[in-house]
Design goal:
By secondary structure, the chain is an alpha/beta fold. It has a single domain (5-303), classed as TIM Barrel, CATH 3.20.20. Helices cover 33% and strands 11% of the residues. It contains eleven helices and eight strands. The longest helix has 16 residues, at 186-201. It is globular and about 50 Å long. The protein starts with a helix and ends in an 11-residue tail after the last helix.
Length: 314
Amino acid sequence: MHATLPLLQPTNFPQLKRSGLETLQVNLGYLCNQSCLHCHVNAGPKRTEIMDRTTIEHVLAFIDRANIKKIDLTGGAPELNPYFYYLVEESAKRGLHIIDRCNLTVLLEPGQEHTINFLARHKVEIIASLPCYLKENVEEQRGKGVYEQSITAIKKLNKAGYGENNTGLILNFMFNPVGAVLPPSQESLEQDYKKTLNDQHKIEFNKLYTLVNMPIQRFGSTLISKGIFNEYMDLLKNSHQNSNLSSVMCRSLISVDWQGYVYDCDFNQMLDLSINGSQTHIGDLEIPDLDSITIGDHCYGCTAGQGSSCGGAL
């Protein structure tokens, strides 16, 4: 796989400062039941990196001393971590808003039969990856059969109350473009998703988030192989909007990798761009250390067009 970091530094992206820390994004490991083309984590079934119980205890200790309000669980497929249930239960005891970034098909895997009811019981918000409402686009990114499996999983979530009004069970979808383009308007695309999925499958959900494909890891390597990496970077830079700088996720979030090391965001984690330029473990992290934010040209992916973050358009 081609390395993208040398192509992303140095950078003229505007320097950022953290405004406050509300969210701890925790990568529970790179093990996943899928291998998606756009995956910036390069996750897959053969990855062995998994966060252990000791590191999870360090995460919980930091939550306590930093007064974290929200925990955002990601991977890989976070549900495949053997301590996933434990971390959710401990986070719920602390009154945290819990997010599970779910690829949907993992809910159909052996051993996951009780996961949906568990998530519902703890009022976990689900942000599910569904890169398109069209079968051919989903399977181009994620593999044959994934679309039907995703629809089956969504119907199970709907049956448990997810995506319905007045249940408090939030089901949001995440859209990634197919290829080296920016996503369309989040608002108009959400309307298309809701109409098509309801008409064809009687599916309900709450919101759609659009996410720009980041020029790193598997997707970045694909751009280099196709000879269009620079062209895509030009698109991101030329679409930069200064107004998005105040809302980028790194201003209120930090990311923890499966070993417990801390980064300004999930994308920096995948590029091994440590917080403050030095490798820091969550067990040693102090709040005053979180002022400055490490940047690179990939940051233009968060400020291009309507903006992009783990919570969708800015």
